[in-house]
């Protein structure tokens, strides 16, 4: 997307905003959204061009929806011990007062109490925001969106002035993104190898005497490089290495970003219909088709992996039953094949009980 096309898109977006301001009554604390086509635009490439401190990127597992955003139109965050109920009440208040199909992006801590980890302080207990500008690509069609919150003393002129100021910062970045050449200096694991081995041995012993059935162990790896890494470079790598996964990046400032890739779906909701996955049990992909099929069959016949998957499936099913009128499992256990690994997988569909909130769903899952 060259400079001339970009200016044309901005002018069209501005005209659409003027038309909306003439036809709509401004409601304080609501969000305004306008959009225009941006044919051929690639969200990740567009995001690389921007010099904004705050950036978001998200794409679904099949890359049917891919979006990138900069700056903030509306932010909902909290520090310390905060209930998720309060989060969803705040989100719903904003969304219900806004007419357009607006999306918040973000996440929250699974821990009820503050973990005391300073690396996560900047994200708070939860952090969700609507970007000011968003490049969205859905089913091959791209569009640029602008969002802004209506402040109590706003009028059409002040909103238009805000748009002009914010849009003036677009498309001024380096088209190729930041320098990608860097060298790994060191890696440190926490806990270290000896303590990690002891933890594994303890868990195996507790499993053998049936004190626990399943546990997911994790440790921290800290990498030091010769220079600061552009988070979007890692996003590019994840997108290339892990097709079939949700890819996301939430950059709160130039020094902090939360990046991830996962094939798992906690849940998706459409009115009172809910969808969720159970994914557990793993094998690598084969070097050729014959080995791949052999590993698939090995996974399907593995007692250990079947029990691991059943544990997760039963948990998801039982959790959904707490908030649903009925729950229906999808197909029989199948194999979900990703680029480098394959998992046992099945899905669930349910009909939510009347009045069930997202807070209640999150509490169960």
Mean pLDDT: 88
* Largest β sheet strand count, sense and barrel closure: 7 strands, antiparallel
Q: Give the strand order, joined by hyphens, for the main sheet.
A: 1-8-7-3-2-11-12
Strand content: 25-35%
Structure class: alpha+beta
What's the short version?
By secondary structure, the chain is an alpha+beta fold. The protein is built from nine helices and 17 strands. Helix 1 packs antiparallel against helix 4 (156-167).
Report what the structure shows.
The structure is a single chain. With 365 residues, the chain is of the alpha+beta class. It has 9 helices and 17 strands. The strands form 4 sheets. The chain has a 7-stranded antiparallel beta sheet. Strands 13, 14, 15, 16 and 17 form a 5-stranded antiparallel beta sheet that branches. β16 and β17 form a beta hairpin. α3 packs antiparallel against α9 (358-364). The longest helix has 21 residues, at 3-23. It is globular, with a radius of gyration of 23 Å. The protein starts with a helix and ends with a helix. The model has no long low-confidence stretch (mean pLDDT 88).
List keywords for this structure.
365 residues, alpha+beta, seven-stranded antiparallel β-sheet, 31% strand
What is this structure's SSE topology?
Elements: H1 3-23, E1 31-37, H2 43-49, E2 55-59, E3 65-70, E4 74-78, H3 84-96, E5 105-108, E6 126-130, E7 133-138, E8 141-149, H4 156-167, E9 184-190, H5 193-208, E10 220-225, H6 231-241, E11 246-253, E12 256-262, E13 268-270, E14 273-284, H7 289-301, H8 303-321, E15 324-329, E16 334-337, E17 341-352, H9 358-364
Antiparallel strand pairs: 1-8, 2-3, 2-11, 3-7, 4-6, 5-6, 7-8, 9-10, 11-12, 13-14, 14-17, 15-17, 16-17
């Amino acid at each position: 997307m060259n400079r001339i096309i970009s200016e044309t898109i901005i002018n069209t977006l501005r005209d659409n905003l003027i038309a909306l301001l003439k036809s709509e009554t401004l409601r304080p604390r609501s969000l305004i959204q306008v959009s225009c086509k941006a044919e051929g635009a690639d969200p990740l490439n567009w995001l690389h061009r921007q010099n904004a401190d705050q950036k978001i990127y998200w794409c679904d597992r099949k890359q049917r929806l891919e979006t990138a955003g900069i700056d903030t139109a509306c932010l909902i965050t909290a520090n310390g011990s905060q209930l998720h109920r309060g989060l969803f009440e705040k989100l719903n208040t904003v969304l219900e007062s806004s007419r357009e199909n607006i999306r918040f992006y973000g996440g929250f801590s699974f821990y009820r109490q503050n973990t005391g980890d300073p690396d996560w302080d900047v994200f708070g207990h939860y952090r969700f925001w609507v970007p000011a500008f968003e490049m969205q690509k859905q089913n091959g069609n791209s569009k640029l969106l602008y969002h802004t919150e209506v402040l109590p003393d706003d009028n059409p002129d002040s909103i238009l002035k805000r748009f002009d100021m914010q849009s003036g910062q677009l498309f001024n970045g380096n088209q190729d993104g930041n320098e990608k050449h860097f060298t790994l200096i060191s890696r440190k694991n926490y806990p270290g190898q000896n303590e990690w081995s002891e933890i594994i041995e303890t868990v195996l012993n507790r499993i053998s005497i049936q004190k626990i059935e399943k546990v997911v162990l994790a440790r921290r790896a800290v990498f030091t490089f010769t220079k600061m890494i552009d988070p979007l470079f890692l996003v590019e790598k994840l997108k290339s290495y892990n097709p079939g996964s949700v890819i996301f990046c939430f950059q709160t400032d130039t020094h902090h970003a939360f990046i991830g890739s996962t094939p798992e779906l906690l849940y998706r909701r459409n009115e009172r219909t809910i969808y969720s996955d159970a994914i557990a049990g793993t094998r690598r992909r084969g070097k050729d088709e014959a080995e791949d099929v052999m590993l698939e069959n090995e996974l399907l016949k593995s007692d250990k992996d079947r029990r691991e998957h059943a544990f997760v499936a039963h948990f998801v099913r039982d959790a959904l039953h707490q908030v649903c009128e009925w729950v229906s499992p999808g197909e029989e256990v199948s194999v979900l094949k990703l680029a480098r690994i394959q998992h046992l997988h099945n899905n669930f569909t349910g009909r939510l009980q009347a009045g069930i909130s997202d807070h209640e769903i999150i509490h169960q899952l």
